[in-house]
Write a structure and sequence with these properties.
The chain has six helices and no strands. By secondary structure, the protein is mostly helical.
Length: 192
């Protein structure tokens, strides 16, 4: 502000002495100087171009395909698991085999997604654009990983023998599915 006033005073002193120029000239000059000063003092930040390696792009593609394949497995696990839950202890053989195969498939897909996701997160650690969304997505997916591991490794074998553990297994699995779907939605909304 002080610099603008000094430049305005200098423009007034440097202006010609006749009254017609003084009335119109300095005001225009001062206005031009003030606009020039504001434009010069406000730096514009250019968006930084981000280059990714071919390996990063390949891991991201694998990550996306594995994520898309997970959704139908969630549906299959829900159907088979619900059938087993409702039957009590006499589980239909199709539900048992479908639930076992689905659990293995989910374990494989979540392993692939965790490895590719964490690797790409590490490679992109210096990129500030979208960092919060990536970190929220990562936290949700790692929490889902932990929930599925607990539901499958600890609660799965116990669920065959106890109704309470069966209910807990179901609850933890559905919470983990919801957490994973929230993680997917975070990236879908952020990437539009």
């Amino acid at each position: 502000m002080m610099l603008a006033l000094q430049l305005a005073a200098a423009a007034l002193l440097a202006a010609p002495a006749d009254s017609a120029t003084v009335a119109a000239g300095p005001r225009t000059t001062v206005a031009r100087l003030a606009v020039a000063i504001e434009a010069d003092t406000t730096p514009r930040r250019r968006p930084r171009a981000v280059e990714v390696s071919d390996a990063y792009a390949m891991r991201l593609r694998i990550h996306h395909y594995a994520s898309y394949a997970t959704i139908p497995l969630f549906a299959a696990q829900s159907i088979a698991g619900n059938q087993m839950y409702q039957s009590g202890g006499s589980d239909p053989s199709w539900a048992k085999s479908m639930h076992s195969i689905g659990a293995g498939g989910l374990a494989a897909l979540f392993t692939v997604n965790t490895v590719t996701g964490v690797w790409n997160l590490w490679d992109h650690r210096d990129v500030s654009e979208g960092r919060t969304v990536r970190l929220v997505h990562s936290a949700l997916m790692l929490a889902s990983d932990a929930g599925f591991a607990y539901a499958g490794i600890k609660l799965g074998p116990d669920a065959t023998r106890s109704g309470v553990k069966r209910q807990e297994h179901r609850r933890v699995a559905f919470i983990s599915m919801g957490t994973a779907l929230a993680g997917y939605a975070t990236m879908l909304v952020a990437n539009r």
